[in-house]
Every structure is written in structure tokens, then in C-alpha cells.
# Entry
Amino acid sequence: MIRLAADALGWAAGGRFVLVDVDLALPAGSLTVLTGENGAGKSTLLDVLSGNRTPARGVVKLDGVPLAEIEPAHLARRIARLDHAPGLYLELTAQENVQLFRALLHAERGDFDVAAVLDQVGLDRREQTRPVRSFSRGMLQRTAIARVLASQADVWLLDEPSTGLDRAGCDLLAGLLGDARDRGVTLLLATHDPALLPLADRHLHLRHGHLVPSEVG
Amino acid sequence: MLWRLTWLLLQKDLRVASRSREVFGFMLLFALLCVVVFAFSFLREGEAAAAQVPGVLWVTLLFSGTVGLLRLFAAEEEGGALALVQRTRAGPHPLLLSKALLQLLFSGVTTLLLLPVVLVFFDARLAHPGLVLTALALGLVGQSVLGALVAALLVHVRLREVLLPLVLYPLLAPLLIAGVRITALTQAGAPAEALDGWLGLMLGYDALVLVAAPWLHARVVEP
# Structure
């Protein structure tokens, strides 16, 4: 079953097309790695696929429904996004950040174990209750990954997810991504990190705005 | 739902403000500094110029409010959280509302602390303090909502520190003029009925801003 699909996508900036006739079909429970040179348009493609940018041409569909027809709040619950910036409030603790974004996405006030999610990304309980302003880049990234985990979205669009992570963090990330895929989450990773390529079911390369398939691994 | 999400975001803003301790303190300090500078500037033969109170009070609140508005979205910008919050269930309305309420809270407390200081420094009295407080409340509501809107619209603009006052001050002119007139008439001992027209203007202005600002904000932040 195709979870997220793009058909003849085009997006232009400054008079030139960044994305040209991009066709993409991401099956449910798959992990796709997207590579490309700096400025190739990887982040732009993730923006368009998540509904953050409206394409100049073409259409993006989630479960066969165009994104434009999906209520934004529902779309935010379905598609989780990890950007270059961590997307956190620096004065809040890791627990408060994850709790806040979880509450902004989901109406229910049930007992969601935020600490357990932060345990999963390798932040100990003392670190979890510190304002994230004091965190290193890698710890911020772990908190941002925890935010994605807590969203319980079924599509993850991750831009350079291994940014700032140490070796142990990269291994932990690989485990989390694999687990998510096994749970049926659809993942698209834009990355320059070759260590993430072996995880991929499919490897796509963005060159001059065109998407071309590459060999996995 | 709107109010629950607004409260959630406002709680977050208050928590951020209490930990960073950078906005309210600066607003208050800046306001006090303005009053002191104005007080010495308007000294006439050693006597404070009580007639300047309306202008001093409203201009000081406008300036100190601007200090707060320039930092209104700083927490979102620093950690890159703005786009994420806009995409959540909260959407644009609770975000704008929570920011306007935060600004109103800070401006309101600043006003309550500043008003006695201005009256003492300028040796002035108000015939109808209740009416002046009503005018100040109406003025701060308009300034906070419109200010939050302009701050949100300029959040990605490089020269926003310069542009915010340039855009906001002309828009706030009717509110400022009405506020100054009400304070001046009150100080002169005018009957309460003489203020009705000006209070009506402020009320109408606020009603327009409260309807138009969320609508405009939602249109602009749509992808």
C-alpha cells in the first residue's frame, strides 16, 4: 500500500525550478534514503511532501488523498518532520518540550510517558529535566527525535537525522528507525551520512531537481 | 479547544519568560527610564510639567510595549519551533492569541507600576482614574493584538527591529490619539460624558483589530 505519493512535483525559487517533475511513491512500512548534493533540493522536497510548502506543479497524496484536502491539524498528526533546526524551546526542559508538542498534536490528556520516550533516545532522567539550552547539538537532536517518536505519526520525514550524534547516538538512531519501520511507519531520510544507507529499502538521489533511483547500500 | 490550546501556549510562554527573565524586566526598566528622561526634559523653572502627563504616559507605554513585541517570537525563532507549532492542532489562532495575551499581561503590569510613578514625577492628578484605566486597558488590548500580528508577520524579515515600529506606530495612531485625549480631558477635570466619543473610538478600533488580526494572520501563515 502506498502511504505517501508525489506526482509530477515542481517547485521554483528565484526564477529557477528546484524540483522538476518529481514522482515518488513511499509504501507503508518502508525506509527510503534520499541523497543529493548541497542545495539539490532535499529539504525543499521534504517541505513539499509534509505540506509546509505548496508545490508550483503536481500533487502530493497521503493514502490517496491530496494534502490540500486534508485538515492541517490531522496532517500534522500523520506526518512528523525533523528539520535542520531542532524545533525546540530552549528554555524548556526536554520533558516539557516533548510534552508540549505531544499536547499540541493530540487532544487526549491520557497518561503518555514522556520520560520513557526520552529514555529511548538515550537521555537520562537528570538530563531530561534540564532546560535544553544547556544541551550539546547531539543532545538537542536526541530530544528532537524523541519529539518525533512522541508524535506517533505514521510518516516520518527526517532531514539529516544523524546531525550532531556520536557513534552511540547513530547506532541508537538506526535501531529506532528500524523499529519504526517494523511498526509500519513510512520513513524518508534526507542525509549525507553513508552510515544510514544500509538501513534503506530504497535509495533515491536528487540531481538538478530530478529524482533518480540509486543502488541500495 | 481554542482556549485550551491558547492556555497551553501561554503557559509555555510564561515558563520561558520566567526562565529567560529578559522581556518583562527590560520593558519595565525601559519604561521607567523613559519617564525619568521625560520628567527632566519637561522641567520648567524647577516645576514638573503636569500638562505633559498624557503624552509622556502613552508614548512611554508605546515604546516599552515595542521592547516586548520585538522579543515576542524570540523563543520560537531560537529553537526553530515556529513552523512546528503552526503545523500542530494549535494552528494560527491560538498562537497569535497566546502571544497577544502575553504582551497584554506584560504591558498591563508595566502600566500599573508606571502610572503612579508618572503621576508622582509630574505632580499630576486624574479626575476620573477609572476612566483613564479603562482607556489604558483598551489601548493595551489594541496595541497587544495588533502588535502581535505585526510581530508575527515580520518574524522572518531581516530588518524587523526597524520595520516593526515603522509599520505598527502609524496603525496605532488612532488609539494613541484617543488615549492621549482621554487622559488630557480627565486631567483637566472634564465631565465623564465628554470622553464617550473617544472611548467609543477605542472600543470600535479594538473590535476591528480583534476580528481582523486573527483572520489576516491565518491567511498569511498558510503554506
Observations:
- Chain A has a mean pLDDT of 92.
